[in-house]
């Protein structure tokens, strides 16, 4: 990292704090939760209410889905964004959604609070430049094959266009292990902390792809120093149109939130 | 691959042949060569003439460069495309160039013969759909973390939009090995041949990142059954603005072409 | 894992508890600490006293070192074992040491309490069978390329010879990331817990290879549910003969132990 | 590789030639073929005769099998060695067999011509030292997670004990790709050639794990500059006790040998 001259690395003494409504990302511990995909108004709003009730801070939900196959459900698009807007009105939760195409950035910003760049688009440099020109915070997921240095260079593509509000999010890398969907690399959390001033989140839902591992890995992420979590929650996972096996029920999410809170308060005393 | 229902897999008895001028990709053995980036008219045309003289069939050259860092040379853009157009006029070689942004597809098509999707954009599904709507053949590089199945699904994104002319290109995957820049996976060549009807090329320049390995790996690719090669050649590699260490001189390229031809004719007799 | 018929998997309701002196591995939380290599009596005993003072439960130290190069320090051998024996007398700490050769198992058992199989020998099946015939507990490190299923099969090699006392230990897998020495896979902790009855430890020293990451990853391992930690501590890391950059000073270890204890007690309340 | 001081690297002008009977490994192109495991006298001798008839130069066959599971067939042991000895008498083919335990090296040497160190034991340093003390050539397979530098250091463990006769053998590394059993890294062939004076073989049977890929990858290995091949052949693959899906029939092997010969003679003219 010695030859890396990045805005992301330069202000070593002050950590970035990103304001979303009255949430202070990088300072407050923040949980972003919600369904993999926006499937219907009812599904989204019910899930949002459950997220809110359990103490979640922001709502996530995909309107544009980057699916491996062109024949899989691709998301509701504009209709999905309007549903997210309603869910925000109902709950007060700011919303995060993924953007896939540089042409969509400006108008998507009308509906949402935080733009997400997915793992598959981490090095879609046109898209990075475009969100760098927007006035919305960007949740930048780590590519599944990305080194820390490459990831920080992608953050720099956004920062160098004038948008200082980048949130990094570890979501699992690709290895030979097949028991989990990806290998969640929690050591990236303190590594990001010691090399940059940007907030770092962890997504144990995609990072493990296994319902039973989400809670322990959430607690581990907190202990490793993460600034927040991104968790998939669905009002009825069995009927989900994607990621059936890794979306928590509201009850599981509530239990998770209680434990996360407990570990956080304990760590705050260290 | 059993659950994969792809257009790419369906016509098992007939292999795809793609016409570019009078070149029959998938039937003729085709070598695409040229500089990493279009840097100037002189550099590009001199290189193109050398490629032509050595028996290369098509010219490659980047006008839009997907660089790891936002501060690295990003390519000449439109000016680069115009230089490629001139190089084509001078040499008669059809040109291949990479497209990075879905907004650029239609106008780039005015200048070039084959669109390239780079490894970093393999799962940029918006871009795949857009080139799928164009009338140009698409050279689809394998992502550095991509399984065969994921790659074929990306080809399917293009095919399913109505563009049947997809050329797959192996360019090395990411592993733990550090001696080479990437690990060139030649077993993907017969694997692609036995699962699809699409042509498969190999790029040993990016695949190894090492000058000394390009020739042996080119010959190995031919022996493995590749339909063509993509080779970086620069009129003066020492002064190249990118990929200094993996661009062949015209002399090296000429020597390589003679050996490739020899191995090909020998294999044709098997 | 469906076709796996392992002793390691069979008794799903009762977790293995391994007695070492009055330590109950699998029930008590256990910290094994000490130098990478036994270098001298003074270095080892001073370190052992520091480990004991900070609350460490067992002493580790290599007498036989599996070094990448044949020209690197290979360990003190028998002399090292005798030093470990003295350190045990001085401190009361049971000792763990690595065995490299099936011929050495029986006589090494005269000096130590727990045999370690290192990552490079995880699939040295002769050695596994030999330690399976011994009456000492075995700390079996995960190979740097090993899936969960392969690792459990290696445990089974030991169990099937009649030795039920196997402790699994995650120590980082090999990936493309170069910022850390290995990628510590903490999701293996709950994965082991849900598939076997064996205790699972974590070694953040080898797992990260970076001094600054050992503390956060230790806390994360605790939060993920680990039964214990293996930590490299050296009385004077700057003069260590191996692993200079990942051995904690006694002061750092003391600070780590206090935080680990705090997180553990907090988790016990969940 | 700059800091590597290896005997393996030192004599840059003269390549190692290893005599086995009248075969000159490193100078002649050599094909080692035979069953995964020695299962019976009849199976082994029939296969050996077929290997001989097709032009194979040496016989391979496992008497000690390093199986993932302790409950899988572990090989015939001494009985297997005696069968290999008979097969040698019948055919005149020198035999290669794997050794798993340092205690077995000296007596196994009574029965065979070349000792094999398998991928799983590449860093079993005790075993490397032991075969380094023997007077037999050693076929050292690359570990499935091993960098070139680590592999050469393992060769050095053998060379530094006084045995100069090391044959390196690429057999596939572990990556995320699941279509093939391993990823055969052919770029290691010219990489070994340019950094050492040792012969380099390729094993496409384990390297791909897929019958249909063995022939194209054998030809590619030849074109990449390999000094020899290791191929699994079984008189009746359907009834093999291991590696059913990657052992060639005698007919397939004969066809392969004819093509290999053709490509070799063509390359000799380059």
Would you kindly provide a brief summary of this structure?
Chain A is built from ten helices and ten strands. Chain A is α/β, with parallel strands linked by helices and 270 residues long.
Can you put this structure into words, describing what you see?
Four copies of one chain form a homotetramer. Chain A has one domain (16-268): Aldolase class I (TIM Barrel), CATH 3.20.20.70. Helices cover 38% and strands 14% of the residues of chain A. Chain A contains ten helices and ten strands. Chain A has helices spanning 7-10, 41-54, 78-91, 105-108, 125-133, 148-159, 188-195, 204-208, 211-224, 250-268, and strands at 18-20, 23-25, 30-34, 58-60, 95-98, 114-117, 138-141, 166-170, 200-202, 228-232. In chain A, the strands form two sheets. Chain A has an eight-stranded parallel β-barrel, surrounded by six helices. In chain A, strands 1-2 form a two-stranded antiparallel sheet. In chain A, strand 6, helix 5 and strand 7 form a beta-alpha-beta unit.
Write the layout of secondary structure elements.
The structure is a homotetramer of 270-residue chains.
Chain A: H1 7-10, E1 18-20, E2 23-25, E3 30-34, H2 41-54, E4 58-60, H3 78-91, E5 95-98, H4 105-108, E6 114-117, H5 125-133, E7 138-141, H6 148-159, E8 166-170, H7 188-195, E9 200-202, H8 204-208, H9 211-224, E10 228-232, H10 250-268
Parallel strand pairs in A: 3-4, 3-10, 4-5, 5-6, 6-7, 7-8, 8-9, 9-10
Antiparallel strand pairs in A: 1-2
